Amino acid sequence: MADDLPGDFDVIVLGTGMPESILAAALSRVGQKVLHIDRNEYYSGQWASFNLENIAKWTKEILGEHDLEHPTIDEDNLLQPGETLTRLDLCVKGKSYFNITSEYHVGDEETEFDQTDATQTSKEENKVQCSEVLVEVNKDENDPNKASTMASGEAAEESKPNTEIMSEQKSDENIDKLPSKQNTVDNAKEMESKKPKPWTASKLKKEWRKFNLDLAPRLLYCAGNMVELLISSDIAKYCEFRTVSRVLTLLNDKLEKVPCSRADVFSSKDVSMLEKRMLMKLLTFCADYTNHKDQYQDFADKPFKDFLKSQKLTKNICHFVQHSIAMVTDTMTTTEGLARTKKFLHSLGRYGNTAFLWPLYGSGELPQSFCRMCAVFGGIYCLRTAVSAIIRGADNKCTGVVLTNGQRINCRYFIMEPSYANAEDIQYEAKRHVNRGIFVTDRSVLPTDDQQLSLMYLPDSEDGNRPTAVLELPPSSMTCPQGVHAVHMTRSGSGEVHPREDLENVTQKLFDPTDDDKPNVLWSMYFSQTYYEDLKRGESTPDNIILLPGPGPEIDLNDVVTRTREIFADIMPDEEFLPRPPNPEDIIYVDENEATVGENKEQSGFTEESETKETSTEGNKEDMSDIKSDKTESNEDSETKDSKDDQGTEVTTIQSDNSVTNTGDSMVDQSEDGRNNQDISSDLN
Predict the structure, then answer these.
(1) What is the CATH number of the domain that holds 266?
(2) Which CA distances in Å does 96 have to 464, 491, 552?
């Protein structure tokens, strides 16, 4: 398909990651001609989700086994006077990922039932039971009471063989009742079949299609920027979500559920009544902290943990708020900690008793949703294609690119992710990396009767600035088959420490093959991923080349949406960012011939007929407006009804704010206009 591409586009986007896909959809939506290409054979780039087989293929690609090659470029025919060519590095090895290891922690074959052992067991059981029968027979023969009752002479002689016959018959009957060799084997096999079969490497490989493992797992705050964007742009119709049902933490090396909402606080048995009052009072203040600056201004630039200590809270309450609700490090300021706490509280109660949503089938589905919107409005997609070189004009502007098939494509803007760019085109404040671990376990870290989607933000006692974010996904999240869980761990890297060693402290606390109360790891994968802080283009890079950041250590997508909004405003300052598309039923298509006929009639001079038609048209418009109004009200009612019917289900469909219902468990109430109003009652006073 790349050979048939048009030669001119307004924007060329290189990479189908999250920010690239959002920006491509926004530009296509306002009428820009967009070409969206990716060197991979899959969407989402560094934000992709893979099944168990494709993640192995991805590893080989990252290790440089399938690098693209530069085409032979005829510069005399492709370039205009004054233009120069800058080739891009097509090698992907070591650019974005390193320290990649994966392994199975279970055997390759199932331990089959040993029929020889069962046969030997049945023989021993038969010997024991036969011995018991013979002892019983001998006991009856040597009983003096029975011998004294027998008559002497012939009667005694005649009774002896009868007694022997009766004894032989009795022994035969008991021996017949003994379990046979075949019955023992069958019974043992039946009992063995009722037990759940242990997971093996071959069994996991057979279920490879049911896995969706994320390279960069992300959650959505229920009242965050991404959810608002999905609603306003109507892209939410392409997605389905599941709520994060619980937040866990480690207290004294024991997993505890964190009480986040009002309902959790009152129902928690791990929090005393005094602690409940302290927690409710603090959360009430955090939800409206901007109107009470006098209560925290002395700690505004100090660590948030110092502010919590000043509130005379217990150690457990400080731990809950800092590490599980605000999710801040030891050095983050009080202002940032309060802002994060407020964001968490405002997200509670919007889609159930939770603050987070998880995209079904993995975070890699979200970029694809924006790609669909881009394609609907004319965007062209081409996978397995990359940019071999950038064409610069005499004014140091990017005038076009040369694809790996040798074709020249002209453009006004060129957007790409850092892994495609040369080193001299990247300028940043700091180059860092994230250590990630993906695990497949045989059960949950804290089993319950139903499947729970769990979030943990675990601090490190030795390094408080590098906590570990843990996300445990059950089969209902559509990321793994029944009987196993998928666990993601993310931690900011430090030096050259391998991710296996960096995450070892958490893995030892959550997983242990020798402990029956902890899950076993069936498969694991570790890798390190590079990201840039304050990414900018190089000094000599053309100003119409835009670099978008890759995934970092964050657990949500708020920063991604904020960054893409800013870039869109620079490119298209007078356009709205991803407005809602028109309803197809409201679009009226007019044929050109009909429009021409209408114009001729207006010029024919038949004013009375024209006025009559205009009057009729106005009347029809009024009638149509009434019908449309009724239809709109009907649609609103149906949407509200659907929203009510969907309550209680595990799958959450994001709709407009009119369909959002408040559960009453939130620390803040949702108003009809979608804003969060403070309406917190002190139920403990």
Answers:
(1) 1.10.405.10
(2) 26, 16, 11
Residue 611, helix vs strand vs coil: helix
In terms of domains, do 605 and 543 share one? no
Residue 241 tokens read as 């979500």
| CA–CA separation, 648 and 473 (whole Å) | 19
Q: Is 338 in the same domain as 398? A: no
- How far is the C-alpha of 290 from the C-alpha of 486, rounded, in Å? 39
Give the tens place of pLDDT for each residue, 109-130: 654 434 444 444 444 444 444 4
Domain-embedded: residue 638 = yes
Count CB atoms within 10 A of the CB of residue 432. Answer: 16
For residue range 397-424, what is the model confidence (pLDDT) as tens digits? 999 999 988 899 999 999 999 989 988 8
**Contact (Cβ atoms closer than 8 angstroms) between residue 17 and residue 47:** yes
Contact 220, 560 (CB under 8 A): no
- DSSP string spanning 176-189? HTSPPHHHHHHHHH
Strand blocks (E) in 315-377: 356-359
pTM exceeding the 0.85 threshold for the entire prediction: no
Query: CA dist 485 to 45, 246, 397, 476, 552, Å?
Result: 24, 15, 50, 10, 24
Q: Residues of 491-507 as b/e, b for ≥16 C-beta within 10 angstroms?
A: bbbeeeeebeebbeebb
Strands 454-458 and 246-251: parallel
Quick one: tokens of 149?
């009752």
Answer whether residue 181 is part of any domain.
Answer: yes
Instruction: Judge whether 18 and 359 are in contact, CB under 8 Å.
Output: no
Using alpha carbons, list the distances in angstroms from residue 531 to 22, 96, 365, 418, 644. 19, 8, 21, 9, 42
The domain tally of the chain equals: 4
Here the tokens at position 317 are: 């309450």
